[in-house]
Design a protein that fits this description.
Length: about 130
Amino acid sequence: MGRLRRKRMHKNIRDTQRKFRTKRRTKDMDQIHEDLKEPEKLTKQPVDYDLPGAGQYYCVECARYFTDATSQEVHIKSKLHKRRLKELKDVPYTLEEADRAGGLGSYHIRLTKGKHAEIAEQAQAD
């Protein structure tokens, strides 16, 4: 790696890192689960010439547009699509589950004065 190669890396330039991180951002899994509740809405879209393939060839599971039917069929047979289908079999976390994991839900242990005293006595006895 020569002198010029090292200069063109943009290694520690923060703006460049952020640009590339958000440039190819796709939908998250929970957003795709919401889309799967009404897939007809996304598969039969009105013609939009700003999208690839005028918005007519869309993979709901991968949240991706294709230029024609053959490229969509090739994608459906691909390993990336099959991997995404396997990931979508898991049920997404709900807000209640996230609260419980953070200690805000029904997993909160509340001790009454009687039980607290019993636990303290057991600790002293040991």
